[in-house]
Each structure stands twice: as structure tokens, then as C-alpha cells.
Amino acid sequence: MSAQLLSFTDRGIFCAEGGFYIDPWHPVDRALITHGHSDHARWGHGHYLCTHQALPVMRHRLGDIRAEGIGYGERRQIGGVEVSFHPAGHVPGSAQIRVARGGEVWVVSGDYKVEADGLSEPFEPVACHSFISECTFGLPLFRWQPQAVIAEQLANWWHTNAAEGRASILAAYGLGKAQRLMTLLPQAGPILTHGAVEETTRILRDQGYPLPATTRVVAGMDAKSHPGALIIAPPSALGTAWARRFGPSAEAFASGWMALRGIRRRRGLGTGFVISDHADWPGLNAAIRATGAERVFVTHGYTTPFRRWLEEQGYEAGIVQTEFGGEEADTPSEAEPS
Fold first, then answer.
1. Three-state DSSP state, 313
2. Residue 287's domain spans which residues?
3. Do β-strands 7-8 and 13-15 pair in parallel, antiparallel, or remain unpaired?
4. How confident is the model at residue 333 (pLDDT cuts 50, 70, 90)?
């Protein structure tokens, strides 16, 4: 009997026949990367392979790396296996990675969401025998409202603040979430961005992603110079001197974790918008069913209850211990002042 196609090591998910790791968290010679968030794309590997769309942001974040892009659906032989990258719908450029040998197919999901957001390449189920799935929000209480509903809530919040003479400061992760929010909101005024958000936005805009005009916040800028503005910044900028420059303002956080009132209270937020770039409970279940997989490994999130649920549904299920951080992984590295 041949060895298991993918194995789980202290460096990451490993393919011995291909000599590569997928999203490794310690330095390795060859790394296949699902997307550019810092918990999945780390510095120090000898060679990186990711989608063409993810590569510019990865170079920006990681510096001078040996890296190569690959097209969605393009099949490549690496050692004794065939690999291909398929849209994950998580953020622009994100991918699931398919690994095949003979008639055996494994898929590593990376992070994903199943609702098309109008910006990221939409999620595509990939048929496989074994599926390694994130489950960041793997509890039945996590059920997202349609994106259009959240967009209306955000637009009303922005309009009300502007009418009452307050700036609107919206916290969102700098790669993916921030740009998604820009595209789904009808522009009711100027959009200002924290430097960390603007750098990523510029890179994606230069790649051809349809993003609205934004203005980077610089020294001396305040609400008087941009009345009625929406300011998009990393979560750690809330309540800081950087945010106080805008005078009277309303602060909000856009995240799937805003579904939990306890987290909202601990952050001291009166307003939270429940919108995530990860699949909710129905999305996770629908994605797994669509693969046709018989065996499912779950990672980062509510792994124990989700594994139990999958076993009750008849799957062979296991847990993979990883160092992925889920939705809040990028917050610290994107909090530099600007």
C-alpha cells in the first residue's frame, strides 16, 4: 500500500513525493502558498509557488523572495504528484491546492468562503477523496447574512454619521476585507485609508481589481479637510492617536467575530458588522459536501465540535494541529502608524 499522499508535520502539511509543504509555518526549501495572509505566507522559505494574483502582495509583504506564480486550474507535475490551484473565494488571489497521484486526490482548502463577494475569484468546489478544511467558524451559531444586507447596514451607518457631523472609522483587515468593503458600499463621500490598507489596495488596483478611488491618510489630515469621510483602518488603529485626529467620530469593526457579543464588549465597540471572509456553518458544510470527499481533516477554528459533527454525518474525520490564526492573524503586522 502506498504512503499517505499528504502528511502532517511540525513544519506544516507535507507531500513527500513532491518534496514540498503547503503553507508551512517554519522555513522549508519549497512552499506552496494558498494566499498572502501572514499566517499562511511566512518569510524564510527557499522557494514559493502561489497564484499569479497572490504573488504581488506576497512580494510586498515578504520582500526579496524566490517566488513563482501559477494560473488557476493550471496543472503542474512536481516530483511524483500533480498539483493545481483553484479559487477559494477568501481574498483576491486565494486558492485551494489540489494534489493528485494516480487516482488519489487530496485538496487543501487554505481559508475560504462560498459567497461570491464581487472582488475575490469565486470559490469553486474541487472533487477529491480527502479534504483538509479550515473551520474558523465551525459552530452552528455562525450564519452570515447576505452581503447585500450588510452593505445596506454599513451605508446607513456611514450616512447617519456624516449627517450628524461625525467621521466614520471602520476597522477591517488590510488584505481582502478592507477592499471588499470599499467595493460593496455606494460611495457617499470620500474614502480615506490607513497606510497599511492603502498599500495593499494600490497593489490590487494595479493588478486590475475594480477598486474605488481612495486617499491615504497623511500627517495634517483630519475630518475638516474631508467632511463625511469613511476611514478604513486595521483593527489595532481604533482608539489610538491616529484615529483621534479625525475629531468626533463613530468607530465600528467588520468581522465574523462580531457575531459574539462578548468579543464586541471586550473591544469596547458599540457597533459591529458581522461580515467574514471565511465560510460560516452552512458554507463549511456545503463546501465539504460538494467535494464528494470521504475523509475530512479540519484545522484552525472549532476543530473538536466540527470533527464530531462530521463523524455524525458519516465522514471519516480528523484534526490537524496548525499554527494558522484564522481571521485575526494579520492584525498586529498591519498596525504600523501612518
1. coil
2. 7-141+278-334
3. antiparallel
4. very low
Q: For residues 209 and 194, what is the distance between their CA atoms, to the nearest angstrom?
A: 19
- CA dihedral for 249, 253, 259, 262, sign (positive or negative): negative
Are 250 and 311 members of one domain? no
Cα–Cα dist 193/205, whole Å: 14
- What was the pLDDT predicted at 1? 39
Distance of CA 91 to the CA centre of its chain: 5
Residue 227: CB atoms within 10 Å: 11
Matching residue, cell 526579496:
64
Q: Has residue 20 been placed in a domain?
A: yes
Same domain? For 259 and 287 the reply is no
What is the DSSP annotation of 80-120? TEEEEEEE-SSSTT-EEEEEEETTEEEEE--S--SS--SSS
Contact (Cβ atoms closer than 8 angstroms) between residue 319 and residue 152: no
Domain boundary among 273, 302, 326: 273
286 and 269 within one domain: no
- CATH number of the domain that residue 159 is part of: 3.40.50.10710
pTM for the structure as a whole: 0.93
Give the pLDDT score at 269. 65
Residues 202 and 123 in one domain: no
Q: Is 2 within a domain?
A: no
Domain boundary, last residue among 239, 273, 307: 273
CB 170 within 8 A of CB 178: no
Same domain (yes/no): 215, 94 = no
Task: Write out the H or E segment, with its range, that includes residue 216.
Answer: strand 215-216
Between residues 333 and 82, which one has the greater pLDDT?
82
Count of domains forming the chain: 2
Residue 337 has what pLDDT?
28
Cβ atoms of 249 and 168 closer than 8 Å: yes
Q: Rounded to the nearest 5 degrees, what angle is found at the Cα of 333, between the Cα atoms of 330 and 334? A: 80
